[in-house]
Amino acid sequence: MSPDRSGREWAERLSRVETRNITFLxxxxxxxxxxxxxxxxxxxxxxxxxxxxxxxxAFAGHRHPLVVERIRGQAERLxxxxxxxxxxxxxxxxxEALTALMPWPEARGILGLSGSDAxxxxxxxxxxxxxxxxxxxxxxxxxxxxxxxxxxxxxxxxREPFIRRLTGHVHFVxxxxxxxxxxxxxxxDGLLARERPFxxxxxxxxxxxxxAGVRVPPRGFLAELAAIxxxxxxxxxxxxxxxxxxxxxxxxxSDHDPVVPDLICLGKALGGxxxxxxxxxxxxxxxxxxxxxxxxxxxxxxxxxxxxxxAGLGFLAALRSEELVARAARLGALAVDHLEAALGGCDAxxxxxxxxxxxxVELRGRGAKRAVRRALQRGLILLPAGDDGQVVELxxxxxxxxxxxxxxxxILVEAIxxxxxxx
Length: 423
Ligand SMILES: Cc1ncc(COP(=O)(O)O)c(C=O)c1O
What we know:
Aspartate Aminotransferase, domain 2; seven-stranded mixed beta sheet; four-stranded mixed beta sheet; binds pyridoxal-5'-phosphate
């Protein structure tokens, strides 16, 4: 069966059983059935090269052997524990391994299953630690779609239908790729100084804005932001759900600046493909959570899920043994060189930007959406990012072989050149 016909049939079946506006079905997408490394296969048997890392999750590649081995082993012993009552032992092992990587001498974490869970935990922690409910967030920022996280996400499309349920305790300020860094910092300082209409205890920021189109702030901006937050007694929450765990060629993107945030949200890559996220902080900040009076004040049925924690240990082992952080830096530099050489002088291109394996190619007009569509026809999976989908986002696995990198970039370059010719 042709990939198009197969996609149409699966899309029709899904549309009969899933609520509208949950899965994007127009045009019908490939329905995935298998994936390994950077290769994905769909229900029609067609193979693709995945340069999205499936929303950045497959940083260690799809089905990394160390992750699969851990999942398999865990599945034979314990598939579900009782989160906050009878916790799975592997949750302890995973948190021990993760805290050891964090930038504070003594770290603590709260696990979750999605990036939004980690953001909710960070916002609650900030309120407990400062006693101030307000939050400063950035225009274009994406922090998830649960109601607390959505209140800090700046996309009308997601906010508008639920606007009356979103807390009004959030100020948005421009991200410094669109405004002068100094002006932004002054605005943040002014807002933090105000007590009315509400006092602000946290600033949440993506060190590189992902879904807004791989927007990179000027060097030093995060460090200054952290200093201002500190001087006003507020916490800096680095949302590293997309950028963290090596994606940008450093373990944390905040390491580039360098800055040590008060709270760090992690997700996506963390579980090696299993749902797993974490809000991490220093023991001092996290001790704002009061001692338990017998029932946890923040938990959920699947929190600290044993298979996810086990997969997370597999991911951390892969990160170490394959030196994925350094690989991301190296492959990212190769990719930028390749794209600049191939697309230099191409008038369809506005900018090539990013760090490590978090790259964006901004195109004029509807070029990015066209290029993404054309690349898919040629077997390369990409996503458009940015308010108008004007940026082709590249977040491939760091396990990519150099010839796979080249193969994907060649398809991308051809697709971008074709958009210039109106195709
Ligand atoms: C920076 C950032 N924060 C939070 C989220 C939300 O994560 P999730 O979709 O797992 O809830 C995302 C997802 O794309 C993200 O990129």
